[in-house]
Structure formats: C-alpha cells, structure tokens
Amino acid sequence: MFLQPQLRALLRDGAQGVERHDARNLQRSWRKFAAFAYVAEQYGYRYDGLSPLSPKGSPNPYFAFRRLPDAPERAAWSAQHYPAAPDGGPLPGMRPGGNRLRPLPEMRHEVDLLHARIMVDYSRTHRRRGLIALLVLMAAMLIPLSQTGFSAQSLLVCGAVWLFFAALWLTGLAIARHRYRKYSRMLRDSGVDWPANPSLA
Asked: What is the predicted pLDDT for the residue at 201?
C-alpha cells in the first residue's frame, strides 16, 4: 500500500541528486522495511542508520539512506532491468508476485543483515521514548487531580496507574535490550561494525 509512494520518493531524491534520503517504516513489518532498504541500495541509496531528522524518542523514527558514489549507474541499471518497479512491477532482488518485498533466496542473507542493523537502531530509541511517555503521563494526571483534589485516594489511584505504565515501559526496555544484544551479536559474527551513528542513540 505504501511501497509505491515510498519508492517514488526515493527515486525522486535520486533524480535530484539528494545526498540523504529519509524514510520511515511504512511497511508494517521490520523485515519488509529491511527488504525496502535492500531495494533502495539497488537505486543508489545505502541504509545509514537513524536519521538526524527524527525527534529523540520517536515511536516511528526516520531512518537515513546515504547516496552512493555510483548511484546514477545503479539507478540506471535497475530502471533498465525493472522498468515497472515504480508502478507495481517486480523489484530488484525481490520475488515477483503479490508480496513484492520477499527477497530472492540468494539475497536473503544481505536482507537479514540489513534487518539486524535496523533492529539495533530501533532498539536504541526505546529508553528515551518510554521516559518521555512517562513524564507526559505524570503531567496529564495532574489535570484530573487539580479538579478532584489531591486526596489520598486520588493520589493512590493515579500512582497505581503510573506504576502500571512504568512496569510496561520496563518490560519493553528489557525486550529492547535483549533484541539489541541479539542483533548486535549477529552483526559482530558477520563482521559488521554497527551502529553507524552512535551519537544519535
């Protein structure tokens, strides 16, 4: 659904020689987004990690794709061999058919490594994202408290609600850290040095 406009936006930036293309995951699947990252590379843009355009702690961050030195040649080759790609046709490195972001068997390992990079980067956004949400929730609870009064019962209820969401955040943080370690180990075992932009964590 979102693939065609996302691909057209990438091609438009490529035609204009833009050095950095920014994209969000609109594919409802991180593996599909990794497959999109592989396709982007065939048109001259390599996945480069979290984008500086993305707000800190965003639940749907932007990811950066850097223009490669041979981007015009890559784009020309893909356009020649996959002329219908922007209009719903087959994509470079992907299987033809209904789900256009299914990698060919020989491309799967490369897509898996892209998926691991993306998951490492996305996992690094969880800590700040959760803290911001908890602070916003605390501020939001002051509104009903100011109307009902700061009684012991109302404070207890609000405290219980806040602790419930704090527990959810801590659970999510544990999952994110496990995911970070898992995919970081996979990248190290494959000889990939990642993340590319640790300052954007």
From this structure: 43
Between CA 181 and CA 179 the distance in angstroms is 5
- Cβ partners under 8 Å of residue 97, min gap 6: none
Six-digit token pair at 87? 């209009």
**78: nearest Cα among 98, 94, 101, 64:** 94
Instruction: Tell me which H or E stretch contains 184.
Output: helix 152-189
Instruction: State pTM to two decimals.
Output: 0.81
Radius of gyration of the CA atoms of the chain, in A? 21
Instruction: Kindly indicate the confidence band of residue 69, based on its pLDDT and cuts at 50, 70 and 90.
Output: very high
What is the helix (H) or strand (E) element at residue 63, kind and residue range? strand 63-67
Provide the 10 A C-beta neighbour count for residue 148. 12
CB of 27 closer than 8 Å to CB of 2: yes
Amino acid (1-letter code) at residue 149: G
198 vs 135: which has the higher pLDDT: 135
CA distance 101 to 85: 12
At residue 142, the pLDDT reads 74
Q: What is the pLDDT of residue 198?
A: 52
Torsion of CA 44, 46, 47, 53, to 10 degrees: -60
